[in-house]
Amino acid sequence: MPTETDPMLAQLAQLQSLPTPFEGLFDGRERLFWLYLLGSALIALVLMLAAGNWPSRARIRAYWLSRDARLDALYFLVAWGLRTALIIPLVLSVQTVAVWVLHALNATFEPPFLAWAYRDIVLAYTLALFLLSDFTRYWLHRLMHRSRWLWPFHRVHHAAKVLTPLLVYRIHPLESLLFALRHAAVAGAVTGVFIFLFGARLDLFTIFGENLFIVALFAFTANLRHSHVRLSYGRWLEHILVSPAQHQIHHDRRHLNTNFGSCLALWDWMFGTLKLPLETQGAPDYGIGPRGTRYSSVSALLLEPFRDLGRLIRRS
């Protein structure tokens, strides 16, 4: 029989089920997954020991307590709240896009239902989703730099002069929305095409809940990209894979229009935007110069792009 405490218990259960900003520590699809952090930390430690560059306590404090590091930590919490409350409800679901694509194909063609082995279908689906997702990330990232209307929003990410792993979350909500819509469109389109070709026999090869290829090529060194630990893969391999050193070049204000790749450097190589570590000289100059001083608070990170956009519209 229901009691007066039942509604309260139901509300408590609902609150306990709400996501928290720190669930990424236990989610293999997130950059802050504890195993990725540990792997990056061990690699960084080995590199520093090999170079005889053991960091002092003063250097550690200067790095982790820098203005950019503190701002990244605060913005991480604010951005999580905005993403949960505003962005996720606005994004099309992968399932919705897949259904649209499947209906369009069925209305135009006869489904072939190809008789591939299940393992081959899963491998092809995993690889196709990885390649198309990485390819579209390259072009959207490049557009964020090249478009005068989008660059003010992406500049939020590049304003930091100190690179920490949390910098990956210093993304303006508008940019987060664009990348989320890109993911829904790509994953939905690939899923719809594969269901049309093979029927509903789809699954992904995953590790820790993430695409096999992303984890294998990207995850364990991903957090070193936004760090001051220089790790290069060598000239030959860096024409194919994005190394931490390559992405650090991308944050050097002298080379902002290079190295747009996410996992694969292949797209930069193919489309003329590749900059290898061996082709650069001197210490990196992170940030965007004097203009970066405008981005010194969470409110500035959120509002300055709209002010810049207003100035652009007035000039136009």
TrEMBL record:
<feature type="transmembrane region" description="Helical">
    <location>
        <begin position="122"/>
        <end position="140"/>
    </location>
</feature>
<feature type="transmembrane region" description="Helical">
    <location>
        <begin position="33"/>
        <end position="52"/>
    </location>
</feature>
<dbReference type="GO" id="GO:0016020">
    <property type="term" value="C:membrane"/>
</dbReference>
<feature type="domain" description="Fatty acid hydroxylase">
    <location>
        <begin position="127"/>
        <end position="273"/>
    </location>
</feature>
<dbReference type="InterPro" id="IPR050307">
    <property type="entry name" value="Sterol_Desaturase_Related"/>
</dbReference>
<dbReference type="GO" id="GO:0016491">
    <property type="term" value="F:oxidoreductase activity"/>
</dbReference>
<protein>
    <submittedName>
        <fullName>Sterol desaturase family protein</fullName>
    </submittedName>
</protein>
<dbReference type="GO" id="GO:0008610">
    <property type="term" value="P:lipid biosynthetic process"/>
</dbReference>
<keyword id="KW-1133">Transmembrane helix</keyword>
<keyword id="KW-0812">Transmembrane</keyword>
<feature type="transmembrane region" description="Helical">
    <location>
        <begin position="73"/>
        <end position="102"/>
    </location>
</feature>
<dbReference type="InterPro" id="IPR006694">
    <property type="entry name" value="Fatty_acid_hydroxylase"/>
</dbReference>
<keyword id="KW-0472">Membrane</keyword>
<dbReference type="Pfam" id="PF04116">
    <property type="entry name" value="FA_hydroxylase"/>
</dbReference>
<feature type="transmembrane region" description="Helical">
    <location>
        <begin position="204"/>
        <end position="224"/>
    </location>
</feature>
<dbReference type="GO" id="GO:0005506">
    <property type="term" value="F:iron ion binding"/>
</dbReference>
<feature type="transmembrane region" description="Helical">
    <location>
        <begin position="177"/>
        <end position="198"/>
    </location>
</feature>
